[in-house]
Amino acid sequence: MRRSYLFALLSGLLILLLLLHLFNGSWDWDFKTLLKSLTDFDISNTQEVIFREIRFPRTVTAILAGAGLSIAGLLMQTYFNNSLAGPSVLGISSGSSLFVALAVLSGWELLNTAHSLVFAALIGAFLFSLLILFFSAFVRSAISLLLIGMMLGSFTSAVIQVIQLGTHAERLKSYLLWGFGSLQQNSFEQLGLFFLVFLLACASLIFLIKPLNLLVLGEKQARILGTNIALNRMILIAVASVFAGLITAYCGPISFIGLAVPNVVRQLYRTKDHRYLLLGSALFGAITLLICDLVIIYVEPFLLLPLNAITALIGAPVVVWIILKRF
Amino acid sequence: MLLFLSCQGNSPEQAQKQQSNCQYAKHFRLTSYDHYNKLEIINPDDPEEISSYLLLPRGQKAPKGNHLPIIETPVNRAIVLSATSIGMMAKLSESTTISGVSSMEYVYDPLVKEAFKQGKIMEVPSINQLNPERVYRQAEILLYNGFGQKPAQAQKLEQLGVHCLPIYDWREAHPLGKAEWIILFGALTDQLEAAQNYLQEIEEAYKGLIIQSKKLPKGPRLLSGSIYGDHWHMPAAESFNAELYELAGANYKAYVKPGSGSAAYNLEEVLEGWRDVPVWINPQFKSKQEMLQSNSKYAYFKAFQDGELYCYTHDPNRFWEYSAIEPHHVLSDLMQIIHRGKIPEKKLYFYRKISE
Amino acid sequence: MLHFANAHIGHTHLLCQIPELELAQQGLYSLVGANGTGKTSLFHSILNEVPLLQGTVRLEGRSIHEMDRQERARTLAFVPSRFNGVQHLKGWDYVAMGRAPHTNFLGQLNPEDRQRVDQVFDQLTISYLKDQDTSQMSDGERQILSIAQAIVQEAPLILLDEPTAYLDYPNRIRVLETLAQMAQKENRCIIQSTHDLELALCYSEHFLVLRNKQLKLLSNQPIPLQRETLLQEAFGTDFSSPKH
């Protein structure tokens, strides 16, 4: 019952925020132009161009990024049985950053197109996930693993700093900007690939529901209950790094969402059933990122806020709250 | 500052033969005495803070009672950290005096490049990471562009006798004020007269262009800049570039936010306000393809579709080195771009139409 | 039922060697032995968590190690010595996880699965735990739930790793009573490892004694084992008559 209410509430909130975001924070909703821009696009109408090329991609990106990061965070938290795990804490985002840095800063033109950036971020995310996995085979305690993740993070940022030293300032700028995080870099055409990969990753979640629910008891017990841990671990890490890598590639390394949202969702849903937790994280993640971006839209006339500043402003207190609640 | 205004001509009335050499520049003063010059550099953010130096030809004795730091002229080896300074040295045929730059990647000057190949040029990527000893061995003087603050090791360098001079030409509001900083370089290299002659030349050319521009009808609107991150930065209404666009005849100021720096817009606002503007200046890209790769939405602008995009990006280092000291060429280029077809055509000097 | 044939157990070096041993009857078996003799390793070997160094273990005639995962999970249940509870995980959901080897890839429970779970709650008279958060239960309640989970798994063989180690006395009795009852009513082979010989003597029908790399089967019925005999077998020392 509670779950149905929550689902209805979150869905309603998502739709409201989606529309508010789509209309750039205003309550004046011009559906006609919006629909026309998507179905019967008239390139000469500036208002339609704005809807199709600026607002629609931004809203869709916010929703997909928020949902994807939160799902990735939930996967990592369940797998490592640690509510402070997340794509950025475990160094998966660092992997993306490193590879994007290499691609952007090397100045290798071949690597410098939008699609290859996505590719670089995905490879980085996946390689670093494998690295974490490799360590996880030797390290039993989750705290040690988190520490290793953090070390990977500092290590990569140091490597990136070294690369930066010998880099053309123009390229450096574009890398630094990427680091701020942004939902505005996607164009209407780019959305297609983004959405497709996102959907594929979501579809593969179906195979993870049962293992995730059993992993709550720890790897050993899950294995004894018939779970193929080795296989599912691979799928889980792969899916988490596809989500994290995809979003990091398109939007830059967005912090805190993946860490904070699943924790709030667990408190809201009060269940360990991942059918609900996955759906809840997706909904609540999308809502959170829409709110963050709406804040940016609203304060823009006075202050140009980078996305990562807002997610940290909202996310950091949540993380502190989680820690306080646990002890 | 008023005291020293417009004393360009020789005026030997005063016993000391005092003479100031600046007309447009507001952030430095050079006063000539019998056998030496007094240089004062004024911090634009704090006019009370003035760095003064005595420029004394080698072998001469300092005047009695002097307490100012002395720079012996001509300076033989100088580390020059801003591009405009390299251009000014080059105009005085003093490129070989340069013994250090911030990064060779941004150098246009062929003589400096040649000297670098011979190992005579030191690269100083950041003024906060200087090795004082190396600088001391490399140069007598260090000229930096004063973004914000002094080099971290300035005090040590001064003790070693290497003077660190901030160069504020980039803070001057008048195009000729920027150019006038060549006086400082002239004084440092004992080429004051050459500097003055050159200045006179470009002042005439510049003023001639202004007269020509004023006679022309008001030109079209301009779109300037491009997206950086999530925002489009355009020169604000009172900025140097905005003034320059207006001087060249463009209808620019009336449409941008007030301010002296740059104004930030989101893409939506720019599309709404500038989509049909015929000319786009300084998008900071080399080609249209590169622009689309960076942001496909550029394609919606009329100026982009018509190919009316102008920038100096085909040879940016040349622009950064020479635009300050050749303001007449910048103005002339802008006029050519803005009044195309309405004035006799002249080959663009710095600018070029952006390629496909 | 459970059959060892020349089974060599150990991680890297041999801990225990079982030339031939058959646990033919159903019932509650207690595995005893000094620390470090390899009780846990024996369990891990049966569970295929650690491969056998040599030989085979068969369950109802089939080699455990050649079964696939799902099949093994339907044949073998394991209860760890302690379940710490998981926040937001309800008692009912925890027990229902025991049905995992019987459900499809989505883990969906059909009405029979649900009925089976409810039934176990009734059987053990712990229905009040259904909606409680497992992280807020007592150790005793959680241990009973773990046993309930193993029961709904419907495996003929259940292994329990020191199930009473963390419990107070009344709860120990409760757990052992439950186990003994299950072994009888449900016709299962239940093996618990324990150091609690006195209680084991009261409730288990058989003893498996691990000592000197040997596994020995002793029967507690129809003639009850003497405490001293068991101690002697398990620890070797003469405990027969404490002298004051």
Structure description:
Chain A has 327 residues and is mainly α. Chain A has 14 helices and no strands. The longest helix of chain A has 34 residues, at 46-79. The model of chain B is unreliable at 1-15 (pLDDT under 50). Chain B folds into 2 domains: 2-202, Nitrogenase molybdenum iron protein domain (Rossmann fold, 3-Layer(aba) Sandwich), CATH 3.40.50; 216-353, Rossmann fold. Chain C is built from 8 helices and 10 strands. In chain C, strand 7, helix 6 and strand 8 (189-193) form a beta-alpha-beta unit. With 244 residues, chain C is of the alpha/beta class. In chain C, helix 4 (111-123) crosses helix 5 and helix 5 runs parallel beside helix 6 (169-185). Classes of the chains: A mainly alpha (327), B alpha/beta (356), C alpha/beta (244). Chain A binds chain C through residues 206-207, 209-210, 213-214, 216-217, 220-221, 223-228, 266, 269-273, and chain C through 47, 49, 69-70, 72-74, 76-78, 80, 83, 86-90, 93, 97-98, 100-101, 103, 105-107, 133, 153.
Give a short synopsis of this structure:
The complex is a heterotrimer of chains A (327), B (356) and C (244). With 327 residues, chain A is mostly helical.
Q: Give the biggest beta sheet of chain A.
A: none
The geometry of chain C reads as globular
Q: Fill in the CATH topology of the domain at 80-155 and 166-192 in chain C.
A: Rossmann fold
Report how far apart the termini of chain A are: 30 Å
CATH class of the domain at 80-155 and 166-192 in chain C: Alpha Beta
The overall pLDDT average of chain A reads 85
SSE-based structural type of chain A? mainly alpha
Indicate the radius of gyration of chain C in whole angstroms.
Answer: 18 Å
Helix content of chain A: over 70%
Q: What is the strand tally of chain A?
A: 0
Give the biggest sheet of chain C: 6 strands, mixed
Outline the fold blueprint.
The complex is a heterotrimer of chains A (327), B (356) and C (244).
Chain A: H1 2-22, H2 31-39, H3 46-79, H4 92-106, H5 114-138, H6 142-165, H7 169-180, H8 188-204, H9 209-215, H10 219-224, H11 229-251, H12 257-269, H13 274-299, H14 307-326
Chain B: E1 19-20, E2 28-32, E3 37-42, E4 50-57, E5 70-73, E6 78-80, H1 83-91, E7 98-101, H2 110-117, E8 122-123, H3 132-138, E9 141-144, H4 154-159, E10 163-166, H5 175-179, H6 182-188, H7 192-215, E11 222-224, E12 227-228, E13 231-235, H8 240-247, E14 262-265, H9 267-274, E15 279-281, H10 288-294, H11 302-306, E16 309-311, H12 316-322, H13 327-338, E17 352-353
Parallel strand pairs in B: 4-5, 6-7, 6-9, 7-8, 9-10, 11-15, 15-16
Antiparallel strand pairs in B: 1-2, 2-3, 3-4, 12-13, 13-14, 16-17
Chain C: E1 2-9, E2 16-23, E3 27-32, H1 39-46, E4 54-59, E5 62-63, H2 69-75, E6 76-79, H3 91-96, H4 111-123, H5 139-152, E7 157-161, H6 169-185, E8 189-193, H7 197-203, E9 206-211, E10 214-219, H8 227-235
Helix pairs in contact in C: 4-5, 5-6
